[in-house]
Known about the structure:
31% strand; 3 helices; alpha+beta; 4 strands; 4-stranded antiparallel beta sheet; Alpha-Beta Plaits
Amino acid sequence: MSAYQISYDLRKQKDYAPLIERIKSYGTWCHPLESTWIIVTEQTATQVRDYLKAFMDNDDGLLVTGLRGDGAWYGLSDNISQWLKNNL
């Protein structure tokens, strides 16, 4: 299993609901910042990107980045901090 950070910019209609539903469908997820999610999955970054981009417009932006081990953060809730400690 790998952890991936997902960041996006929805530029046109900004209909987040379909994209968010797809992100949550991974089961193990965290939403630490407004346009940033972290998921844990057996898929590759390319597979995650391809799965999510089907719910985005052509002018939207999407970044899927693999995370490994070390991380630092500030100003996040205790629940999110604990999730990060458990899953990174």
